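Board work, copied verbatim: Pirin family protein
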Amino acid sequence: MPAITVDDLTVLPRLKAPGLGDQPRPVRQVTSAPQGYEGEGFPVRRAFAGIDLRDLDPFIMMDQMGEVEYAPGEPKGTPWHPHRGFETVTYIIDGVFDHQDSHGGGGTITNGDTQWMTAGSGLLHIEAPPEWLVQAGGLFHGVQLWVNLPRTDKLNDPRYQDIRSGEVALLASEDAGTLVRVIAGGVAGYAGPGSTYTPMTLVHATLEPGARLDLPWQVEHNALVYVLNGSGSVGATEPSPVRTGQTAVLGAGDYLTIAADARQESRSPRLDVIVVGGQPIREPIAWAGPFVMNTKAEVLAAYEDFQKGRFGLPIGG
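↓ predict structure ↓
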């Protein structure tokens, strides 16, 4: 898993053990992601399927894209399509993805890079592997998270953030058995580079076999742990077993605990998780396809604006 790594975790800042009086977050639910296909046919796991939107707030959905080894000619992406009212966060772990949008944003991301697109008032965008990768084939693995925007920010001008792997904050667990990558938000005073409208934290953690991670977490944020690969448990006092493709929904508390099983499969020698949480917006949601608004009328208006070309034109169109 080439997302940015560190050979010697002991050189990184260490997270401290929970303090006296700190409360662990209990596990409220564990779900298994169904598998399907998106865009032009790339495989995905719907990480948050089966979880109530009230428990996800401020998030809408998250897909694990791949992990898949493409043969030459097989790599796929998405065609041009519209969005309004939220943000898409695409984190590439393995492989290469190109992005373009009708507002001028764009770039190529690979191996630990993130593209953070605020659709806001509306745009068109496309995500696809570069032509050389289509011809050669190769490994592809990533995550796309949809982050809702508050009513006051839904019609803000679109923007694009290109976050390189070398910019993320890197921490180690107290036992130096876990690498914690902070992509957005903050952990124990260390901030990730992602700029967010909705207060939130996004972390990718890699646990060595037998390692334990006590991760401080904003008290006012919710918390979800999704297993990219490997097996282990979530929770301190009553641990719940988790494995590849499962999400743990946690309750309130000051920190969350993740532990890796001492024995891992050879194809997944470590436990990799995405940990995400944010401050709930607590506003009505009207969600239809690529539009996430507050009312049905606003969704219909988004469709009308898209059909009348008000989101701009595809690059080269």
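The mean pLDDT is 93.
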